[in-house]
Amino acid sequence: MASSKPVGQRLVLSSYNIHRCYGSDGAHRPDRIRDVLRQIDADVVALQEVETLRDQPGLLDYLCENRSWTHIHGPTMAHAEGDYGNAILTSLPIRSVRRIDLSQDRREPRGAFLVTLGERSRTFDLLATHLGLRPAERRAQIRILLTELQKTAGSTNDKAFTVLMGDLNEWFLWGRPVRFLRRHFGPAPAPATWPARFPLFALDRVWVEPRRNLLGVQAVNTPLTRIASDHLPLVAELDSGRFKQTTKQQRASDDDSGDDSK
Fold first, then answer.
1. 121 contacts 95 by C-beta, under 8 angstroms
2. Residue 260 pLDDT exceeds 70
3. Quick check: pTM over 0.90?
4. CA–CA separation, 59 vs 79, rounded Å?
């Protein structure tokens, strides 16, 4: 799997819960989701609540139409009409893909992607996920993801940086899943993304290690995004030109450069 766009100095990443393409007005409008994605024009998009129907299997192809994106499908549930889960769209070369099962007993199945993207000598790791609704569920899922990141850090020291992004479903900035992630990544901006019409909660998040590679994060709040889904898309800009691995001392200094309250 590969696509043609090389890794540049700046990368745009987006996380977007598309709510099965149902807008905040209740209408099923994949065309609005596609318009939002085209306006953002990100190098990598992590999608959540992606529903592909058996009689309409081409949703991801439709979203990628006339773009250089390749899509990676990660369904977590199957039902009579089709399947449901996560996806990634990217214009970057795809080096590897691994799917991680985050499902907890008697809860909705959940999952994550661990994807390596970029050119052979300039790559980075991306964890994209959609966590559960209960606090204990999210805590267990974050522990699994952090364990995966520790394994990756021990075996791939040549990676430029690591990104974790997705719909974390964490309502509180002081919730334990957020504290776990702050301890690993350092602080990061947390703009509100839900509900789309009147965003109050930072359910969608982007974390980057080293923190200095993260240039900015914003929720895209426009008339279209307020109606296309029940979440606003989250967009992060990264500096991909800094490839030196962070040290504990550097990470400590990085902690001063961001704030979850932004």
1. no
2. no
3. no
4. 16
